[in-house]
Structures are given as C-alpha cells and as structure tokens.
Amino acid sequence: MANKFGYNYQTMSNPYNDFLQREDSSLADIKGASQNGKQAVDTEKEKEKSGSDKQVNSSFDVGENVIEGKSINNLRINKWIKSQNYKPNKDGFIINGKTGKAEFQKATIRGELNADDITTGTLSVAHTEADVTSDNPQLMSWLTDSNLSGYSEGTLANRPAAGTAGRYYLATDGGNNGNAVLFRDNGAAWVEASISDMADILNAIADNVGESATRKWAGESGADVTGNNTADDTNNVNGKGSTNVIYHNGTRYERADGTASAAEDLDAARNFEAVVDGNGQGDYTDIQSALDAGNTTIYLRPYSSYYSGFTITTSGVTIKGESWTSCKIGWEVIIGDGSTTYENITIENVTIEYANPGIRIKNNTQMINIEWCFISECFTAAIYIEGGKNLDIKNCFILRNNIGIKMTGSYYPYIFANRIERSDNEGIKTETGCYNSTITDNYFRYNGQTNGVSALYINSWWAIISRNTFIENRGEGIKLDEEEILVSNNYFENNNQSSAATFPAEIEIGSAETSLITGNYFLINEDFSGSDYAIYAGGFDYQNINGNTIRADRLSSNKNDAISISQDYHLIVGNSILGNWNAAITTGSVGANSVVANNMIHLY
Fold first, then answer.
1. Where are the alpha helices (DSSP H) in 465-584?
2. Same fold? 272-413, 422-604
3. CATH class of the region 422-604
4. By C-alpha distance, which of 537, 521, 534 is closest to 569?
5. pTM, whole model, 2 decimals?
6. pLDDT tens sequence across 206-252
7. Parallel, antiparallel, or unpaired: how do β-strands 478-480 and 505-509 relate?
8. Count of CB atoms within 10 A of residue 134's CB?
9. 272-413 — its CATH code?
10. Domain locations in the chain?
11. pLDDT tens digit sequence for 90-128
C-alpha cells in the first residue's frame, strides 16, 4: 500500500525535542540570590515537641529576579523565576510561583525534588489540550497515547527491567555528567537510542494517527467515519518524495511526489478507494484486480512499464492517472459487455498505446467520459464506439492510429477539443446508426495518410460540426454522406494533399440532403495543388450554403470552381469569394429552382 499520511512527521514540531537535548538542570540547583534579595540569616530553631531535631533554613522572597550564587535550601516565590535564556514561547523555562510548576515554552514540566536534590515521582512533559486543539487539531487523537515512557526518578536503576522490545525510557546516562538520554528496550537490555530509533518512534506515532483518523477529529461533529480499512493506515516515514495519504471524513487526501509542502499535497485531494501502483507501492499492482475487488474510484500511479488492459462492467467507475506521460496502458480497455446497461464511467489522464483498439465502448453504455488521454499507435481505432449514448470524448491527443475515433452506433456523442493527427485513415468516422453527434473545437491535421480519405467522415443523421480546424489533411477536410448536417464556423487550409478524391474539395457533400454550410473560412494557397473546390455538392438537393469566406489566392488555371453544385433547390447566399481563377459558383447542368444571391465575388 502506498504511504497513507499527508503530513511529513519528520519535520513536525515536537515539544520533546528541546527537552531531550537540554542538560539536566535540577530545579533545586538554583544558586545564590540577587543583589536585590534579602540576605540569608542562618538561625537555630528550637526542637519540635516530638523531640526530634528539625533543620530550619533561611527564607528568601524573590520577585522577578535571576538568582545567582550559592544554592539555597528553602525558596519562597512571589511571582516567578525565569531562566537566563528565557524567551516567551521559545527558549528556557520559568518557575511559576502561583502554580508551583516549572513551565517550558507552551508545555508544563511536572515533578518534585527531595531534600537531596533528587527527582522523585515522575517528571513529564505535556502540551496543554488548548494548544493542541488550536494548532494541530488532527493530533488530538493520539495526545494521550505517547510512545515515550516517563522519566522515572531520573536514574538508570529506576527503569523497569528490560524485556519488552520497543519501549523507550528517558533516564540519566549513569556517567559522571548525569545527562538525560533516551534509551530503547531491545528485548534483552536497555541501549541508548539512535537517530533511526527516533524514526521508529515517529513511525509508530504516524501509525496511530492513521488508525485514529478514521474516527472524527477533535472539534468535529457527527458520527465517526466507518468502513475505511485500518490495515491501509500504515506509513513509512521516508520524507519528501513519497506519496502520503490520509483519510478524513471518508475523503482520501494524497500527497504527490516532489511537491513542496504538505499544504500543496492536500490541494490534490481526491476521492479514491484504491491506488494502483505497478511498482508495488499501492493497494494493487494492476487495474483489473482493483476493479474485481469492487473498487469504483481508482487512482493510477506512475509505472516504468505498461499496465495491462482491463474490462469495466460496473457503473460509477472512475480511473484516473496521476500523469498521462507515466501512466501507460499497453492493451485494450473495454467498457461494458454489449448487453447490460453500464453508466457514469470515466477514464482520465492516461496513455494507451499499441492496443486493438485503444478503448472499446460497447452497446448499452451511457454517460461515458474519456478525457485528457493520449492514445497512439492503435489498430482499428484509438476509440471505437460500438453503441451507447451520451458519450463524451474531450481534450485527448489522438496520434498515429488506424482511425482516430470510429462510431458505428451511438446517440448524442459529444466530441470536444481533441487533437487528432496522422491517422492512416479518417480522423473521425461516423457510420449509419449514429444520431445527433456534436463534433466541436477539434484540431485535424495530416490525417488520411494511407488512402487519402477525409479527415472527418459523416454518415450519420443530425450532426453538428462546429469551430473545428482542418489543416493539410491528405483527403478532404469533411465529407458528408447523410442528411441534415450543420457545418458552421470551421477553418480549412490546404487539405486534399494527396488529390486522391474523385471530387477533391475542402468540403464534399455526397449522398446528403438538407445540409447547412455556414460561416466557414477556406484558405487555399497559390502554390498548393490539392483541392479543386472549396465546397462541392454532388447529386442531392436542398443544400444551404451561406455566409462562407473562400480565399483562393489566385488558383492556377487547372483549378475548378470555388462552389460547385448540381441537382435542385439550393440556396447560395452571402458568400465572399476572393481570388478564384475559374468560376466562383457553378450550378451544373441541373441546378433548377436554386437561389444564388448577395454573394461578393472578386476575381484576379
């Protein structure tokens, strides 16, 4: 499992650190008195009625003064005494005359000294609950579960017998200087703890946080979170560069590699049930195993090789890669089984290469979303849509496939803002059985590499083709073979590079009636030997061609007409035609009952 905690505990502020490094300063070793203090007077007191002798020591009243000089046996504090290095909320300590306790930074040091200046009882350090709640509310769950044992009586002899591995004790080192040292029980003896041992302590604390974080945090209302796998809540504290994850109210927060801070890591919060990592640092090493286990939200980690393909036969599945450049799938991805209805499925931010096809969307699926994917070198098609409805393909880069996107049966597909280049055949091909396609804001270039077919081929009813760019494709920019198609506001430049089409045009209207071709811009350069026509309409009626701009830049004499139509009942109105060598508009030998009006024609 990938690391599970969104915080870098190696750099977490810890009230123990300064205390562990500070030399043992016994509270009874406060020496001398300030010049403003009262001079001590040693007197002999009478014996108690019990007959026993009692030493009576001189008393000193101290305000806010630094005490220097010889040690004193009895000290009365009016307010407090500060250590010389005391800085508020930072360094040193004070002795609080009101509470009788030593206070270090925001913590409280509790303990007692006997007449021989030896610590008795337990000397401990604890944050106040108010401090923790305000500064680090997520730590409340383990505030009382410290992994450090108390500093018991301050000597080696006062520790319990060794034999329980993993315990830690703070005690004097037994040498001449009496420094406090952290010791570790190795199961047989107490040994001085090393830096790596301290990392183990942090590990244990981190584990405890993960297990507690499935419960509600301090200050939060509502029921505890249930259903999270606490076995997942383990962490290898290895610093920045790991992927740390923490659960909070059922949301999985992830830290990605190389981010600068835990705050930035939390910005990448995602609701994922499982992490797939081919390197073995996740819940699963392959995507199909994560799906078979019933996970519906799957986060894909970078992997140096290729992930295997998979089949989704569950609704509501989301598979998202951390980086499309390093989350690669080398086999076919199948959505649906062709008979059962599956819906609300998303594949995002991955690369799919060398598959046949890259993604296959079967019949009876609906609300399928493919976005931000790179799909390349796939047979049949990068994306093959056999059926379904309300399918979205957005922001993908589709490069060097047999066909970019092939649709043989679909209702309401929405194809938006994709870059489709260097397909052997069509960039997008829709066939009979598709209805109400919307193809908008896509970029087509160098498609039709093998056979010179069109970049976009439409053989389906009621399509909208808008705001696309077609540049230097080997065949036509668009070929229409079905009725009631809207082609608006597209840009065409120097298509038909192969001149393989029978009627080489930027737009060829074949077996189609009632097309509306409007607001498009055509640019055909003088030295280009491709398209003979900007718009060619063949043997069907009722074409509406209006508001287009055709700039031919002095086409050579072997070129034909800017707009050429045949058959009847056409409307050709309001077009601007600049620089065509031959006829600007021709209606052929038929062309009855057509309207040609208000066109602006400027010939060189």
1. none
2. yes
3. mainly beta
4. 537
5. 0.58
6. 544 444 444 444 444 444 444 433 333 333 333 333 444 444 444 44
7. parallel
8. 10
9. 2.160.20.10
10. 10-38+58-191, 272-413, 422-604
11. 666 677 666 666 666 544 444 555 555 454 544 444 444
